[in-house]
Specification:
Blueprint (H helix, E strand, L loop, with lengths): L4 H13 L2 E5 L6 H6 L4 E5 L3 H6 L3 H6 L6 E5 L7 H11 L4 E6 L18 E4 L5 H6 L6 H7 L3 H5 L5 H20 L4 H13 L3 E2 L2 H8 L3 H13 L3 E6 L13 E4 L2 H8 L6 H20 L3 E4 L5 E7 L5 E6 L9 H9 L5 E4 L7 E5 L2 E6 L8
Parallel strand pairs: 1-4, 1-5, 2-3, 3-4, 7-9, 11-12, 12-14
Antiparallel strand pairs: 6-8, 7-8, 9-10, 10-11, 13-14
């Protein structure tokens, strides 16, 4: 079992703020394995009928848990009334630390009539981060991470197994989409998923998707929402606010994992021209974990920033993704800072061992391989 110290620390930090954590990420991302790494925890697999029976009386269950203990509800949406179980735990038993896991946000299922606003901390659990590849998984070959993807079983397999990817897609549809969203048109839905993975990193065009997949615009929009809630895709909205020729409506869409991008494209190796776009996916995961909401920026003069995050007050941080930091150009950042002067600028490159700063006129840029250790 490969330890995940970054995520153990994230959980412990979250429990310092609230004693209920909702940990969500796609299936087989390692949520269960991570949960079982917590020492002396009471692990409850909500797929088991015996566990379901125990939790039919949540008060009695909680009363029999030692004060200060950790309770894990894995796949809690399997219960008949999961929101009641969590609500009682959050409101009445604050000496316990509770971790609930699922493949989607709480809004994915009608079983959650109460979204537990103000009672929980939400943590997004992505595929294996690049930092973890280097430090915990001992994978230093970027192309391997890009080609195989970041689901632990896939990443650690000797060869890229096409069957693993096909089985994951079938399971994702059956257990996350059909069951939670009642989607019945399997062919149309999987066609849409395939096209979105093919177009990963590009602009989300609803009309074009409808024509290509043979589905109506409303159906495409409903499916895209389901895929976002169930973490198969990431929608990145444009950042705007100055009113000066900025793109304000055209979102980008990213597949949740580079391995599935290479799978649907039939790649057996990473081409030089594709490495940069795939690296953006890994940077996006880091930014989502660190900052939550992530945007991109483009204006009508075709200046573009890969990613933007909001800080406190008027602070706005910019991030450019480069495989080779020597190819970084400050032009887009200079233009962006004419509109938004406050914030930090980063060039994220995978093989920088020690962060450093460079100045381009009045623009200071931090060059680093990660943002996980930087303050928000």
């Amino acid at each position: 079992m490969i330890r995940r110290p970054f995520w153990i620390e994230e959980l412990n930090n979250a429990w310092r703020n609230r004693h209920l954590i909702w940990l969500s990420g796609v299936r087989r991302s390692g949520k269960t394995t991570l949960a079982k790494m917590l020492p002396n925890a009471n692990y409850m697999n909500c797929d088991l009928p015996s566990v379901v029976r125990q939790l039919e009386d949540p008060e009695y269950f909680y009363q029999n848990q030692p004060s200060g203990s950790i309770i894990i509800f894995d796949e809690i949406h399997r219960l008949n009334e999961p929101d009641m179980v969590l609500k009682i735990g959050a409101d009445e038993y604050n000496s316990l630390k509770i971790l609930a896991t699922g493949s989607s946000t709480l809004s994915a299922t009608k079983k959650f009539r109460d979204s537990l606003t103000g009672r929980k901390t939400q943590l997004f659990f992505p595929p294996v981060l690049w930092d973890e590849c280097l430090t915990e998984f001992h994978i230093v070959d970027l192309d391997r991470r890009l080609l195989f993807g970041g689901l632990p079983e896939f990443l650690l397999s000797k060869d890229k197994s096409l069957q693993l990817f096909s089985e994951w897609i079938d399971s994702y549809y059956a257990r996350d989409i059909q069951e939670l969203f009642n989607v019945r048109n399997r062919t149309g839905f999987l066609k849409l998923l395939h096209v979105l993975f093919m177009q990963s990193g590009g602009i989300l065009e609803i009309t074009s998707l409808a024509n290509e997949c043979g589905l109506s615009r409303p159906t495409i929009m409903t499916h895209v929402e389901a895929l976002t809630i169930a973490h198969a895709i990431n929608i990145v909205m444009p950042y705007y606010g100055s009113g000066k020729k900025e793109i304000v409506k055209r979102p980008k869409v990213y597949a949740f994992d580079t391995g599935f991008v290479t799978f649907v494209k039939g790649w057996n190796e990473i081409r030089e021209t594709d490495r940069g776009l795939l690296w953006e996916h890994l940077v996006l995961d880091m930014l989502k974990v660190k900052f939550g909401d992530v945007y991109y920026w483009r204006n009508k003069d075709k200046y573009e920033i890969d990613f933007v995050t909001k800080g406190q007050g008027k602070l706005v941080n910019t991030f450019e993704c480069k495989i080779n930091p020597e190819k970084f150009s400050p032009k887009a950042m200079h233009r962006f800072r004419e509109y938004y002067p406050e914030g930090e600028n980063y060039c994220i490159s995978p093989h920088i061992k020690t962060p450093y700063k460079l100045r381009f006129g009045n623009l200071e840029v931090i060059f680093t391989s990660s943002v996980l250790n930087f303050s928000k």
